[in-house]
C-alpha cells in the first residue's frame, strides 16, 4: 500500500495550492479518502473527506468554501484544491484512506506534505 502526497510548499496569505495524493495497493474506490492536517501544537484535524462509494464530500468548518476535494477513480488519486489560504492553514497535510471520515478510521496514511502560509 502506498499513498504519496505532493504539492505542498510556501504560499502567501490569500494564495492557492493544490495537493495531490497518488495511491496504490488497495481498493481506492471502496475507501473514504481524507486529508488530515497537523499543525504545530494543535490536534490533528480532518479538513476534508470524500466518500469512496458516492463521492460525497465533507469539510471542516475552518476550510468550508475555500478547499475543494476531488478524486479520480481511474487514476487512484485524490486532490485538495486550497484557495484563500490563511496562516492558520499551515501544517503537515496527510492523505489517508479508511472506512470512514474520522482520522481514527484511517487504515493507510501517506508521509505528509508541508504547507506553509506566510507573507
Explain what the structure shows:
- The protein is globular.
- The chain is mainly β.
- The strands form two sheets. Strands 2, 4, 5, 6, 9, 10 and 11 form a seven-stranded mixed sheet that branches. A four-stranded antiparallel sheet has the order 1-3-8-7, with no helix packed on it.
- The protein starts with a strand and ends with a strand.
- The chain has strands at 2-6, 9-11, 17-24, 32-38, 45-50, 57-59, 67-72, 77-82, 91-98, 106-109, 113-117.
Assembly state here?
single chain
> Separation of termini?
37 Å
Computed over alpha carbons, the radius of gyration is: 13 Å
What is the tally of beta strands?
11
| Largest beta-sheet characterization | 7 strands, mixed
Q: How large a portion of the residues is in β-strands, by DSSP E? A: over 45%
Poorly predicted parts: none
What is the tally of helical segments? 0
Helix/strand/pairing category: mainly beta
Amino acid at each position: 500500500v502506498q499513498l504519496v502526497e505532493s504539492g505542498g510548499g510556501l504560499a502567501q496569505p490569500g494564495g492557492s495550492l493544490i495537493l495531490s495524493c497518488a495511491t496504490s495497493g488497495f481498493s481506492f474506490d471502496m475507501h473514504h479518502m481524507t486529508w488530515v492536517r497537523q499543525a504545530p501544537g494543535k490536534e490533528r484535524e480532518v479538513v476534508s473527506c470524500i466518500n469512496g462509494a458516492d463521492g460525497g464530500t465533507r469539510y471542516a468548518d475552518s476550510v468550508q468554501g475555500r478547499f475543494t476535494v476531488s478524486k479520480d477513480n481511474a487514476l487512484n488519486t485524490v486532490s485538495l484544491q486550497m484557495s484563500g489560504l490563511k496562516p492558520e492553514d499551515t501544517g503537515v497535510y496527510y492523505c489517508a484512506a479508511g472506512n470512514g471520515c474520522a482520522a481514527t478510521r484511517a487504515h493507510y496514511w501517506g508521509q505528509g506534505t508541508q504547507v506553509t502560509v506566510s507573507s
